[in-house]
Amino acid sequence: MTDPHGPTRTSPGTAQRQTTVPLAVVILAQNEEENIPHALASVIPWAAEVWVIDANSTDRTADLARAAGARVVTHEWAGGGAQRTWALRTLPFQQDWLLFLDADERVTPHLRDELASVLSVPPQEISGFYVKRRFIFLGRWLRHGGYYPTWLLRVVRHNLARCEDRWVDEHLVVDGPTGRLRHDILHEDRKPLSRWVKRHEGYADQVVADLEGAREGGPAPRWLSRHQVERKRWWYERVYLGAPLRLRAFAYFLYRYILRGGFLDGPEGLIYHSLQGLWYRRLIDAKMLQAHRSADALRGGHAAPVRTPDPADR
User: Is the pTM of this model over 0.85?
Assistant: First the structure.
């Protein structure tokens, strides 16, 4: 692991900032050479600190980040929740406020200006801010299917924040009240679709691992909550978990594609909801069923109920 307190290399252009917003940015990355330049270009010119937590990439991710002027620290991947928790507890932030950004995301100019305004005199009673994610797939903004707006807690006072213990679909939690920002983070993965499929095969295994263990410290499931993630957790635990194994993924796809209007996003919407809302969910169910039957065969006992994944997307 690279020492986060040690010297870091910066590019000659780092000092020529457009403005300095009192904000540290942390980007989690592993083999993201197609995406990392865009994420960094959206924050390097104005953020007071930019950190890239690189999980032993085998491509040019770390070199590109250093060349752009980011501070690069290597930390072996142990799940999304563990990676964020390690950053919160280890990195020597000079700023009180922190923005978590994924490598395939970027900050819009409008959000940049809003952060500059809000953090110039931050409200003392607020511990974090939710931002909207604008999801782009195959070049198209998915406005429907329940994908916009997706509210994510991403801007936090780092000393008041923690992350739930999950490999995937992890969420930040803060002690204290939260607010909402008006403008968006853009999510656009520039890798080939084949990489998307392979990555989600790995995600399915990680979801199974999450469901096999007790995961605490995340958002509470509340149907009447004003927070979107808490409502989704309630939907998952009270509705999705109780649905028949053979039908739930199909029902979830129809809910997103028909009832929530995913069909309005054209062929890109059909492809995405078919892959992420149906194929991916069926893959997780199959892996859960396989693991359940294997464990039951080893025990020689009766099968226990099969649990299912959280349909709330990160």
Answer: no
